[in-house]
């Protein structure tokens, strides 16, 4: 899931998230290996969240640029008609 997020494959991240949730329910909750596993999972989850936030911000910026270009094009077309 983390590799998919790093690659920007968000459809894969979504499907892998459901699989991760299913597998998490199967993990034992005791022992030192469980603590190590949970610590690693939390670190990976934080990185995925950071990558998602960056992708969301990048998408918002691209949408803003698109809207700006759309308004400029409309202004140009209306000026050409007048």
Word description of this protein:
There is one protein chain. By secondary structure, the chain is mainly alpha-helical. The chain has helices at about 1-5, 10-25, 30-80. The model has no long low-confidence stretch (mean pLDDT about 90).
For this structure, the quaternary state is: single chain
From the alpha-carbon coordinates, what is the Rg to the nearest angstrom?
21 Å
Mean pLDDT: 89
The DSSP helix count reads: 3
Main sheet specs: none
Q: What is the terminal separation in angstroms?
A: 54 Å
Shape field:
rod-shaped
Q: How do the helices and strands follow one another from N- to C-terminus?
A: HHH
Count the beta strands. 0
Q: Strand share of the residues? A: under 5%
Structural class: mainly alpha
Give the fraction of residues assigned to helices: over 70%
Low-confidence stretches: none
Map the helices and strands.
Layout: H1 2-6, H2 10-24, H3 32-81
Summarize the structure.
This protein is mostly helical and 82 residues long.
Relevant terms:
82 residues, mainly alpha, 3 helices, 85% helix, rod-shaped
């Amino acid at each position: 899931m983390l590799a998919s997020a790093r690659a920007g494959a968000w459809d894969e991240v979504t499907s892998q998230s459901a699989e991760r949730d299913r597998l998490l329910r199967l993990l034992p909750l005791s022992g030192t290996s469980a603590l190590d596993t949970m610590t690693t999972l939390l670190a990976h989850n934080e990185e995925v969240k950071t990558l998602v936030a960056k992708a969301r911000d990048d998408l918002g910026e691209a949408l803003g640029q698109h809207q700006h270009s759309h308004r400029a094009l409309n202004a140009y077309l209306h000026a050409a008609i007048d």
